[in-house]
Amino acid sequence: MSGDAPMRSHAGSLPAPEFPNPAFVTPVPLAQAKVAIVTSAALHRASDTAFAQNDTSYRSIPREARDLVLGHWSPNFDRAGFTEDLNVVFPIDRLEELATQRVIGSVADRHYSFAGNQPDDLATIIHDSGPAAAAELKADGVDVVLLTPV
Predict the structure, then answer these.
(1) Which end of the chain has fewer CB atoms surrounding its CB within 10 Å, N or C?
(2) 63, 109 in Cβ contact below 8 A?
(3) Contact yes or no for 96/63 (Cβ under 8 A)
(4) Does residue 2 have a pLDDT over 70?
(5) Nearest-CA neighbor of 49 among 62, 64, 59, 39?
(6) 106-132 pLDDT per residue, tens
(7) How far apart are CA 4 and CA 13, in angstroms?
(8) Domain ranges of the chain
(9) At residue 92, does pLDDT exceed 60?
(10) Based on C-alpha coordinates, what's the Rg of the chain?
(11) In 10-143, at which residue ranges do the beta strands (DSSP E only) sit?
């Protein structure tokens, strides 16, 4: 095996979570949809509590916030793109442009960030913080979520 084949082979052997009775809905047309961002970049406002190691909570990010801190602490993560342009990991300005162009209906007032570097046990995110963030998105009338994994 060469290249990334060993990693692909390993990843293919890992168990995937199964969700009984997954919901299916017919989405509204994109031109009418309210869109929010959910990122795993551990973004937070400078005034918020930073993410700690193994932190399974999330942070709410107001639509107008641009004073964001990248809390992703892996030494292997290249921060150059984020340093140059927030939209590399949090494409809020691109969403605003799409709303102006009427490609999407609107941009949500709140967006959400999780820390992507998690322990092997994701039970808290699956059963607690993930559904809590989803409930907030639903309460805000969000139709589409743009996931930006980091």
Answers:
(1) N
(2) yes
(3) no
(4) no
(5) 59
(6) 999 999 999 987 776 778 888 899 999
(7) 15
(8) 29-148
(9) yes
(10) 17
(11) 34-39, 43-45, 58-62, 68-70, 106-107, 110-114
